[in-house]
Design brief:
Blueprint (H helix, E strand, L loop, with lengths): L18 H12 L10 E3 L2 E3 L2
Length: 50
């Protein structure tokens, strides 16, 4: 899998994703209903093991 991060001022624009692409998973998770999954780490490709 290719886990990447967003290019921002905080990382000197070193990321490969746009800010919009970097927020995809945040918006998707924020819009989940009350019965949606919880207690996971997630990026735009899906759950991340920890």
């Amino acid at each position: 899998m290719n886990r990447t991060f967003a290019a921002t001022d905080m990382n000197n624009n070193m990321g490969q994703l746009t800010v919009t692409e970097g927020t995809d998973s945040i918006v998707r998770l924020a819009l989940l209903g009350p019965d949606g999954p919880s207690g996971t780490f997630t990026d735009r490709l899906g759950p991340i093991q920890w």
